[in-house]
Design brief:
This protein is an alpha/beta fold. It has eleven helices and 17 strands. Strands 4-12-11-10-7-5-6 form a seven-stranded mixed beta sheet, with helices on both faces. A four-stranded mixed beta sheet has the order 1-2-3-15. The chain is globular.
């Protein structure tokens, strides 16, 4: 399934990147952008089609990171472009917190229908993943009248003040940012006994509003929930009247070969948050919860730009594509990609522990002694870029591959060839 009728056999690097035009833009950015904004590689994008990206110097790259899993429908999918253009001709903004418009109601209806679990759902729109997490914390506290929240080591829930209190993937995100939101506790990911120990010794269950978990830790290193983990959290939450919140900002909307990653483990959360791939790159997030939980009164939460009509139009087009075949395609294509990464790991000793669900695939990079090597991983990301392939890291030393869901087996094979050539330059 392809977004556009474009077929290339390989990336094409005409000018060693970054070329002269790219360097000029990078220099301008360095002079005026906040130094907190970090770039994984010196790409200056000119345009994109499907899984292919061109820089300003005419180089063509194969995109295996999709803007951190955002461009799920591929770059410039015709259906998404048409939906946005049609909305542009009507109006750009109305203020969804104060007025109604059909495209927002239609999207809310679609997401409520797709929300995991039984019963009627309601939807709250935000502008991003971290805003969705913030809203979920507020809703959980309001609904339960409890203050405490439990999260997990390795988690990434965002970098705004509230969600940062839950984030525990890298200490650098929290450096000099405290004091943090009170009553947040962390347990080891994958260890429900760690949660129970917190409840036994640190925070009383009657004070806990929610347990917040990524079914698959993204920034934390593409770590997948062990079998039984989410079910155990569901049981603990039910026993104590605690809400279970699933952060599917990166793993949701078909990426894992199911609409939501939690479906792989047969667990329905009380609240689900999503964003990234929802609107093809136009800022949009959403919180989905049952009617009996979303009981907060008017004015309890809202946002001027949340549910922007352009974003809603794009999201409706994306959902139609996802439900129309991209979920199943992601499952099939993901197996091809994971099999290819496993084959590479069998031949290159620096790769260990290949893993994945759908088009969410990770593999760890190690040094010659078999120890996790962030230095080698980071160098490989740059070598991939020089060879015309876009992929980024996660966790301590993981390479993550999260291509657009429209990627074909032909394009996966092209990416694996590039990766193999890069690894072939190394002894390991």
């Amino acid at each position: 399934m392809a977004a556009v009728d474009v077929r290339y056999d390989e990336p094409e690097v005409r000018v060693t990147p970054p070329g002269p035009l790219a360097r000029a833009v990078i220099a301008k950015s360095a002079a005026v952008m906040s130094p907190s904004c970090h770039s994984e590689f010196p790409l200056v994008m000119e345009r994109g089609e499907g899984v292919w990206v061109w820089d300003v110097d005419g180089n063509r790259f194969l995109d295996l990171f999709a803007g951190i899993a955002v461009s799920a429908a591929g770059h410039n999918h015709p259906a998404v472009i048409a939906a946005v253009q049609a909305q542009v001709e009507k109006f750009l903004h109305a203020g969804g917190a104060d007025v109604h418009y059909a495209v927002m109601a239609d999207l809310a209806e679609a997401l409520a229908r797709l929300g995991p679990g039984k019963g009627r759902k309601r939807v709250l729109f935000t502008n991003s993943g971290t805003e969705s997490v913030e809203a979920a914390i507020k809703l959980a506290r309001y609904h339960t009248a409890r203050p405490a929240v439990i999260a997990f080591y390795g988690a990434f829930h965002g970098r705004t003040a509230g969600s940062l209190a839950l984030t525990a993937s890298r200490s650098r995100y929290r450096r000099h940012m405290g004091p943090f939101m009170a009553e947040v506790y962390h347990a080891p990911f994958g260890d429900p006994d760690g949660v129970q120990r917190l409840l036994d010794h640190v925070v009383h269950p009657d004070d806990v509003a929610a347990i917040v978990v990524e079914p698959i830790q993204g920034e934390g290193g593409y770590r997948f929930s062990p079998d039984g983990f989410l079910a155990a959290l569901r049981s603990i939450a039910d026993h104590h009247g605690i809400l279970l919140i699933a952060d599917e900002v990166q793993s949701g909307l078909g990426r894992t070969g199911r609409m939501w990653a939690v479906e792989h483990w047969g667990v329905a959360p009380d609240i689900l948050v999503t964003s990234k791939g929802l609107a093809a790159g136009i800022p949009l997030g959403a919180l989905i919860a049952p009617e009996e939980i979303m009981t907060w009164p008017p004015g309890s939460h809202g946002s001027t730009a949340a549910g922007n009509p352009l974003a809603c139009a794009a999201a409706l087009a994306v959902l139609e594509l996802v439900e129309g075949g991209l979920v199943d395609h992601a499952a099939r294509a993901g197996k091809v990609l994971l099999d290819g990464v496993r084959e590479l790991a069998a031949r290159h000793r620096m790769l260990q522990n290949p893993r994945g669900l759908g088009l969410m695939v990770g593999v760890d990079v190690v040094d010659d002694e078999g120890r996790a090597s962030p230095t080698r991983r980071n160098a490989l990301v740059q070598e991939f870029f020089q060879a015309g392939l876009l992929a980024i890291g996660a966790g301590n030393a993981t390479l993550r591959f999260s291509p657009p869901l429209v990627i074909s087996e032909h394009e996966i094979a092209a990416g694996l060839r590039v990766i193999d050539r890069v690894f072939g330059r190394h002894k390991g």
